[in-house]
Structure formats: structure tokens, C-alpha cells
Amino acid sequence: MQAQPLLISETRVRFGLAPGEILKLTSPKASNMSSTQLQDTADKLAVVETLYRFAAGIDLRDEVLLASAFTEDAISDFRPAAAKAGFEYPVLQGRQTIVAALSGSLAGIDTTHSVNNPRVSIAGDQAQVDALVEAQHVPQNDHSRHYLMKNRYDVKLVRAGDAWLIQSVTVDNVWRTGDLGVLSGV
């Protein structure tokens, strides 16, 4: 049976939190959590952290950080988003292929990726995340132009020791605005 995501409102009720009150894992209220609940919370944070590494690796042009988010045989499928934007992009297979393709295709573009509303489900050593990611693209040589995308990421991850790694990510576009020419050559 797959674990269901715990909503913030459910967390507040379960741990007796007032609106705006934060549950710290060292607080007396957290001491009421079972070791399983603490591990589930830590795993969910680690899963989302993997998505943050992915986004930051792209934005910072840090190939090591970007690679740290993927399994060796990972798959990245940007085709649904690309099709809605009117261009083709191949399915990328393998960590090194993904890192090389993203680093190369975005070399002349400054990007910012903001990960929002991640919903995490964990079952054993496998996890699934559904998140919205806002991706801003600006040519390095002309910051007056931009292409902004709001994408839905469907991410499957596996536990690898103490870390979670992306096994597959499928990106679909919710909306987009700006100059598509910014992505020419991607």
C-alpha cells in the first residue's frame, strides 16, 4: 500500500499546531511522533531536496550537483512540455547524457527554476513526487528577452543509501509566456 501525502492541515491537527506554528523535529510536540513518522518526514524532505539539487544544478551550471540528483540509468522526458511549446526534444537516457544535454543546450541561457507544491508519496525504497516548477529562461547576451514556463514534474525516485535519486522525470507544460525564440537551439 502506497503512503498518502500528509497535508499541512492534517499535520497541524495531528500535532496540535496553531496556524503559523512550525513543527521542529526537536520540539516537545515532535517527541509525540513515532520513529516511523520521523523517518517518513525525513524521507519526504530528502526526496524534495533531490528535486532542489536538480534545479540548482541547472541554474548554477554545476554539473556535479546536477549529476548528484540522478541514478546512473535515469530517464528525462521533456517531450510533453516541448510539444506544447512547439518544438521537439528527445528522451534522454543515462545520468551523463542528461547532464551533458542540459548543460549544453542551456549554455547560452540564464535560468531560474523554482520548485513549488511538491507532493511526495513513499513506498519502501521508491518515491514519487508531483511538483510544479517555474522555469525562467533569459539569453545571457540579451536580458530584455525571456521565456517563462510553468511545468508539472512527475518524478520517480529510488533510495540509494542515505540519499534519494531521480530514476525518471517527465515534464509537462501547464502554461508558458514570452519569446519562444529564447529556446532556439535547445
From TrEMBL:
Which InterPro entries does the UniProt record give? NTF2-like_dom_sf, SnoaL-like
Signal peptide start and end residues: none
The residues covered by the SnoaL-like domain are 40-169
Q: What is this protein called?
A: Septum formation inhibitor-activating ATPase MinD
Originating organism: Pseudomonas moraviensis
